[in-house]
Amino acid sequence: MASKFETPEVRKFPVIPKLENSATSHLSPFKSKEEFQSSLGYPGELVENWQEKAIDKMGDLLGKYRSLRVYLDSCIQCGACTDKCHYYQGTKDPNNMPVGRQNLMRGVYRRYFTLPGKYFPKLVGATDLTKEVLDDWYSYYHQCSQCRRCAVFCPIGIDTAEISMAAREVMDSIGVGQKYCNEIIGKVHKIGNNLGLPEPALADTLEGLEEDVLDDTEVDVKFPLDVKDSEVLLVTPSADFFAEPHVDGLIGYAKVFHQAGISWTLSSHASEAANFGMFIGSYDNMKKLAMRIREAALELNVKRIVFGECGHAWRVAYSFLNTLAGPFDFLDPRYPVPQHICEITNGLIDQNVLHFDKSANDDMTLTYHDSCNVARASSMGGIMGGQFTIPRKIIQTVANNFYDMDDETIREKTYCCGGGGGLLTDDLMELRVKGALPRMEALKHLIEEKGVTHMAAICAICKSQFSKVFQYYDLELDQIVSLHQLVSNALIMNKKEV
Amino acid sequence: MSFVTILYAALFYFAATILFVGLAYRVYEYAKIPAPLKIPTPPAPMTQRGVAIRIFREVVFFESLFSATKWTWLFSWIFHLALLLAALRHLKYFTDPVWFWVSSELVQVAGHYAAYLMLAGLLGLFARRVFVDRVRYISSPSDYLILVLIIAIAGSGLMMKWFPSDILAIKLFFVGLLTFNFSELPSDAVLLIHLSLVIALMIIFPYSKLLHAPGLFFSPTRNQVDNARSKRHVADWAKRMESTK
Predict the structure, then answer these.
(1) DSSP, res B224
(2) Size of interface A-B (CB pairs under 8 A)
(3) Which residue from A15, A82, A86 is spatially nearest to A369, judged by alpha carbons?
(4) Where does residue A341 fall: left (phi above 0), alpha (psi -120 to 50 degrees), or beta otherwise?
(5) Which of A151, A395, B109, B172 lies in disulfide reach of A159, CB 3.0 to 4.6 Å?
(6) In a 3-state reduction of DSSP, which class is residue A411?
(7) Rounded distance, CA B217 to CA B30, Å?
(8) A443 and A456 in contact (C-beta within 8 Å)?
(9) Nearest CA in chain A to B76
(10) Residue B242 located in a structural domain
(11) A441: left (phi > 0), else alpha (psi -120 to 50), else beta?
């Protein structure tokens, strides 16, 4: 493990960096252990005939995922994606160019699954699946945050995330798993959330929050847990229960529900919105995790499911939940399943139910970071681009000072925070700091030009990542805020009920 | 029948079989493999009509590429446009009587100048591959060779302006292939080089990255409707994992 590394220089005018071969080949996350692997149904260590098994698994996935097959066949090697990845910009490693990363698998695909690769491997860049290639896979498929920025620019729509997910699934199947993701998934299977926070601890935490909010606002805002027959089941990332600034967002959701008079509950069975099954490309694990939400909704007899602020969780919720755990015909058909907390707040703003004192946020000049999974893998409000307009509209409703970052770095062209896709682990800190570069550059320009002081986000991973890497870029960790923290600050509460 | 005529007739039948059967088989494979999850990228259309418009814009204008890199877009768009114009001009060799719009001066003149455009676009793409370090890094020999092959096809086609063959005889040869009413192919060197290269291109098509042509239509990030919440989408292999709950 590299103990020391340099934070990339923040450039006034970013240019495409020159290649530096193997610049981050030394970066690999800790490998998973037997106990974490087996609880997910994977072998504990590299199996004996791993090469054969891996090729078999690739064949299996090629028959199950059209994306994988079409994307391995269709790349023109045109280079349009080469400068689009934040990890390439921050590390200069050619294997962090999206096509470079894809080619690690494409070479193997060509060798074992195509005619030219079988007979003329050198000609078409086909490679045997050697131990060295496997090591490269492990290293570089864990330097992809599956943010899909490359897929937006590709003339064919090739999505590197599909390939890195498949690669991780192949590696897991031969016993080469990543500790961070697999340990966490095991905890959710067993306990219900990424933190392994059991029901009594969760209940205690929520009670503490109720006291805090009562002290602050003199309003008795509840944080219900496992309350049957509630209107709403709120599923939120477990980081919202304790981490800063996440918890301020959770307080915001609670205040919105309270003020609107919507009964809601959290579930100790489904106390996690995150679904790391997606990061490792495992449909099975993703489905098992998603089923907990269905089970909780049935058990608690709720009418709607609402998700808190979490990027990839919203991707799984918006795009996959109906597929994985549907049909949700037992819920109130008047509402989409599931809904995002921003859709709830936005709807209540439109109905004039919520009222705000915008000046409560006057100590901040804000910008908004589009989280990659929200921006490029979901929507909101049932309108095209709702995932961009709704969060911005909420911020501008609750705060006076708002500016957007450079157009090339927001909306569908947004940059990943650098910690998504199962990379939010300390053993990848160098990668996380370097991968944050494009976002940091855009933010720092706005700080200089407009005097922006804070950046809001609606993703637990983004918030954790920024509060960690800000210090490397001479920013303060509290300069990242939850969107519903802003809502919470400005929301005018009725105090008479106390 | 001369040996050259028999050889090229056989080669064209062989190449056409590889091209059409190979492509049809690829399309069959792509269509058969399910896309188990909804993964459209923004701006994701919410209707099937919206998807059709999106694909149209990608195919005709290379919209995503335009937003990615202007030079690559310029060179490749020019090349593909020229390819289309040249193909239309060449329809006169396969239709009898020639369709009226193919024989129009517009199509024939545009098809001729397309050769220059095509060369310009291809040379630009080649230069990019050689001079941009990122593109050089990802290029394998086949990436250069395919460009060289198409440059040679355009070049040899253009050369026929100065080394003309009997156009009517060429046409009779190709119409003969289509109607099994065989006719002699002129054995002029430049013509035979041009045709040999085209045969090579036809053969490699279903085995190479030229599959990006059908691939675009099967790309889930581009061809899916953004309606996951309102319409349940489950692949056949995933249905087997459904519990009865």
Answers:
(1) -
(2) 212
(3) A86
(4) alpha
(5) A151
(6) helix
(7) 10
(8) no
(9) A78
(10) no
(11) alpha
CATH number, domain with residue B50:
1.20.950.20
Which residue in the block uniquely carries the two structure tokens 């709702």? Answer: A386
The answer to whether the CB atoms of B137 and A97 lie below 8 A apart is: yes
Give which of A419, A460, A459 is closest to A439, Cα–Cα.
Answer: A419
B180: exposed, middle or buried (C-beta count within 10 Å: 0-12, 13-18, 19+)? exposed
Domains and CATH numbers, chain A: 46-174 (1.10.1060), 191-490 (no CATH)
Distance CA A424, CA B218 (A): 33
Helices (H), B34-69: 48-61, 63-68
Per the domain annotation, does B223 fall within a domain? yes
Cβ distance of B134 and A16 shorter than 8 Å: yes
Q: How far is CA B76 from the centre of its chain?
A: 12
Query: How far is residue B22 from each of residues A122, B195, B216, B217, measured CA to CA in Å?
Result: 23, 20, 17, 17
Tell me the residues of chain B between 125 and 154 that have a Cβ less than 8 Å away from chain A. Answer: 128-129, 132-135, 137-143, 145
Contact of A391 with A457, CB cutoff 8 Å? no
Alpha carbon dihedral A109, A179, B38, B208, in 10-degree steps, equals: -10
Give first-to-last CA distance, chain B, whole Å.
Answer: 73
Residues 6+ apart with CB under 8 A from B239: none
The domain of B216 spans 3-227
Cα separation, A468 vs B75, in Å, equals 43
Cis peptide leading into A438, omega within 30 of 0? Answer: no
Give the distance from residue B158's alpha carbon to the nearest chain A alpha carbon, in angstroms: 26
What one-letter code names the amino acid at A312?
H
pLDDT in tens, chain A (498 residues): 445 899 999 998 889 999 999 999 999 999 999 999 999 999 999 999 999 999 999 999 999 999 999 999 999 999 999 999 999 999 999 999 999 999 999 999 999 999 999 999 999 999 999 999 999 999 999 999 999 999 999 999 999 999 999 999 999 999 999 999 999 999 999 998 999 899 999 999 999 999 999 999 999 999 999 999 999 999 999 999 999 999 999 999 999 999 999 999 999 999 999 999 999 999 999 999 999 999 999 999 999 999 999 999 999 999 999 999 989 999 999 999 999 999 999 999 999 999 999 999 999 999 999 999 999 999 999 999 999 999 999 999 999 999 999 999 999 999 999 999 999 999 999 999 999 999 999 999 999 999 999 999 999 999 999 999 999 999 999 999 999 999 999 999 986 544
- Is B243 a domain residue? no
Residue written as tokens 């409000």? A381
The pair phi, psi for residue B133, each rounded to 5°, is: -60, -35
| Chain B residue numbers touching A64 (CB-CB < 8 A) | 33-34, 36, 235, 237
- What does the block give as tokens for A347? 């709807």
Residue B237 in domain = no
For chain A, give the number of residues. Answer: 498
Dihedral sign of CA atoms B159, B162, B167, B169 in order: negative
Check: CB of residue B143 under 8 Å from CB of residue B115.
Answer: no
DSSP reduced 3-state for A266: strand
